[in-house]
Design goal:
- The complex is a heterodimer of chains A (84) and B (271).
- Chain A has 84 residues and is an alpha+beta fold.
- Chain A is built from 3 helices and 2 strands, in the order αααββ.
- Helix content of chain B is 43%, strand content 16%.
- In chain B, helix 1 crosses helix 13.
- The C terminus of chain B is likely disordered.
- Classes of the chains: A alpha+beta (84), B alpha/beta (271).
- Chains A and B meet through helix 2 of A and helix 7 of B.
- The complex binds adenosine-5'-triphosphate and magnesium ion (MG).
- The site of adenosine-5'-triphosphate has 20 residues of chain B, from helix 1, strand 7 and helix 11.
- Magnesium ion binds next to helix 1 of chain B.
Chain lengths: 84, 271
């Protein structure tokens, strides 16, 4: 094993940390760490799509859990307005 | 006012039972009246760690079913009068516990004790849910390792949605107990650091319990580590955690055992 390989094999905690951050951001939103957030997400989507045709792929939902408050971040890309 | 505390984790084998026993014993040593309750039906172990395995006559299920009175099932610790144990049953029937029965027992325990510490089984099934349901406060036991952190995240989500407090719309208080921590390996980047786990789980830190041979020694002897070896690193971590539970502000540190090179050198010189 070369020197680079030696260091790479040892210093694995940062990789663990990054993988966890990505995974948990996903799991909190989809599997729903909190059921309330999952319900809110569904209903907000339903309300918006009643009025605007939105592309499901252009919708990003992120649940962030903080010490005292949690935030539900919803980022929706709207279709361009066709009015004059 | 009594407090019901659940020691939970999602993942198995991270140190829930070890921590329940030591937090209980340290609270009792501080003069609090404490009961530790084993919710791990079918796989009870708290009795062994407490060294009371030969004194179990009646258990939690017997009380729930009305086969025994609570007073008959409570086992008082021989080393400290303030500390009692309510053992789990060894039955294989997973449905032996139900919410109604647990609710009644917890109500009675609240009347008798200042602290009710519930040792949760691993997993996210019925047993874990029953153990957490009545909690006022949750101690989330986590090892600095990916699967443990992920499972703790799951459990935090359940504490926020599946407990009596959550159902009443109240906020569940949750604190992190990082166990089996190896500072040297974390410093070398081989293991998640305290800050990494805290950032990911974002709940307040109750304490950092280092990996130590003293824990195994204590369980061999049948005593919470804070009793068998009160000055070792994990015991100091548990004692500090208990002071924090009681509202004290204690500076956070990672206790270390004095068994480094220098201590070995001293031993060698003496012998
Ligand atoms: N700080 C520590 N240092 C070294 N070993 C430890 C430490 N904490 C716990 N252990 C060991 O880890 C093992 C599992 O501990 P414990 O039984 O407390 O975990 P648990 O979370 O209750 O497990 P389960 O999910 O099966 O109920 C035991 O062998 C115990 O001695
Ligand atoms: Mg256990």
């Amino acid at each position: 094993m070369n020197l680079f390989g030696f260091f790479r094999a040892r210093n694995t905690a940062p990789v663990a940390r990054e993988r966890l951050q990505i995974l948990l951001a996903h799991e909190r939103a989809i599997v729903g760490g909190s059921d309330l957030a999952a319900i809110l997400r569904e209903e907000i989507l339903a309300v918006i799509s009643k009025h605007v045709a939105i592309d499901q792929d252009k919708v990003q939902v992120k649940l962030d859990r903080g010490g005292s408050i949690s935030t539900l971040e919803i980022d929706i890309e709207m279709p361009a307005f066709e009015g004059k | 006012m009594s407090k019901v505390l659940v020691v939970t984790s999602g993942k198995g084998g991270v140190g829930k039972t070890t921590s329940t026993a030591s937090l209980g014993a340290a609270l009792a040593a501080a003069g609090q009246k404490v009961v530790v309750v084993d919710f791990d039906v079918g796989l009870r172990n708290l009795d062994l760690v407490m060294g009371a395995e030969r004194r179990v006559v009646y258990d939690l299920i017997n009380v729930v079913n009305g086969d025994a009175k609570l007073a008959q099932a409570l086992i008082r610790d021989k080393r400290n009068d303030n500390l009692s144990l309510l053992a789990a049953s060894q039955t294989r029937d997973k449905d032996a516990l139900n919410l109604e029965g647990v609710t009644k027992v917890i109500e009675q325990l609240r009347e008798k004790f200042d602290w009710v510490l519930c040792d949760s089984p691993a997993g996210i099934e019925k047993g874990a849910l029953l153990a957490m349901y009545h909690a006022d406060l949750a101690v989330v036991v986590t090892n600095p390792e990916v699967s443990s952190v992920r499972d703790s995240d799951r459990i935090i989500g359940m504490l926020d949605s599946k407990t009596a407090k959550a159902e009443r719309g109240e906020k569940m208080e949750k604190v992190l107990l990082l166990t089996r921590y190896d500072q040297a390996r974390a410093a070398r980047g081989e293991m998640l650091k305290v800050e990494d786990v805290l950032e990911i789980l974002s709940i307040p830190l109750l304490g950092i319990v280092p990996e130590s041979q003293e824990v195994l020694r204590a369980s061999n002897l049948g005593a919470p580590v804070v009793m068998s070896s009160p000055n070792c690193a994990p015991s100091r971590a548990y004692a500090d955690a208990v002071r924090r539970l009681q509202g004290e502000t204690v500076p956070m540190n990672i206790p270390v055992d004095r068994t480094g090179l220098f201590a070995k050198f001293l031993n060698w010189r003496v012998s």
